[in-house]
Amino acid sequence: MDIKRARVVVIEDDKIMNSFIMGNLRRLGILDLFSFDNGASALLEIGRLKPDLVLTDVHMQPMGGIEFVRNLRAMADERLSAIPVIFLSADSSMSTIGEVMPLGVAGYLVKPPSLKALDAKIELALKGFKTEIFD
């Protein structure tokens, strides 16, 4: 899939980081963007939006990214349960990585990600590839 045609959901509770990520996605040519400030809000809309990719933070309230992905993967609709997910987080602890790895995610970027790293992860995720957990 061409990155410029992708529908992307961003789940990020920090307004400054959200603006940074959304701005970088627009720089990459992605214009079909939707933003939520927690996993619970995004989960309510995911069926309607049917995104090609989700970028999510790990730690948010009332539902963080890990719980969001667990709920996403448990959905009966295979199109939704298979949506590629890239985690974006300032948390690079081994305990968090240990929770994330079994979820079948497309990658993990430490915030703030460079435009080049974001582009590379998204391109691979949209092609169905899993990448190294860190870049």
Structure description:
It is a single chain. This protein has 135 residues and is an alpha/beta fold. The chain has one domain (3-126): Response regulator (Rossmann fold, 3-Layer(aba) Sandwich). It is 41% helix and 17% strand. It contains six helices and five strands; from the N terminus they run E-H-E-H-E-H-H-E-H-E-H. The protein has helices at 15-27, 39-49, 65-73, 78-81, 94-100, 115-126, and strands at 7-11, 32-36, 53-56, 85-89, 107-110. Strands 2-1-3-4-5 form a five-stranded parallel beta sheet, with helices on both faces. Helix 1 (15-27) links the parallel strand 1 (7-11) and strand 2. Helix 2 (39-49) packs parallel to helix 3. The longest helix is centred in the first third of the chain and has 13 residues, at 15-27. The radius of gyration is 13 Å and the shape is globular. The two termini are 22 Å apart. The model has no long low-confidence stretch (mean pLDDT 93).
